[in-house]
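Re: Re: token formats

Sure, here are both.
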Amino acid sequence: MADLAEDPRMMTEPVDCPEDGPRAGMPLEVAFRDGVPVFRPGPGPGLAAGPAG
């Protein structure tokens, strides 16, 4: 789950995450795989990994 800066929440697949996995508050950036948005760790604010489940 990713919370977008514009307020919506988006079901997504985190990619290229550290071995310990995504964590709440981790900044993310959008990437596209086969035209589908996925999220990977990123340097900037604005996107954050939401709680699992």
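Second one below.
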Amino acid sequence: MFRRAFWFTAGAAAGVWATTKVNRQLKKLTPESLAAQAADKAVEAGHRLKDFALDVKAGMTQREDELNDVLGLRQDPDRPDNVTALPGPRRTRAIQNDTTTHTKFSYDRNEDH
């Protein structure tokens, strides 16, 4: 008799456990639950995308500073927007772009024939 009572109790407990597990899975598949899960995933993806953008921006700033150091560009503290200033011209132009020295030619179609 104790054996039957034990197995009856074990079967009832397994049935309750299985029913509870199935009901939880069914609740996860309701439209409201699926919408909430999708919204949570979208928010999480947005946070990851924001973190990625911040990492890229920090890397760009670091690389810009490295390039400024290598190229000899200096920060101009007098400018309010703190934009890097280019160094002055290193040499003057060798050829002047003077339009008065050029002669204008007229094109005659009959010369080709």
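The beta strands are 74-75, 84-85. DSSP finds two helices and two strands in the chain.
- S.
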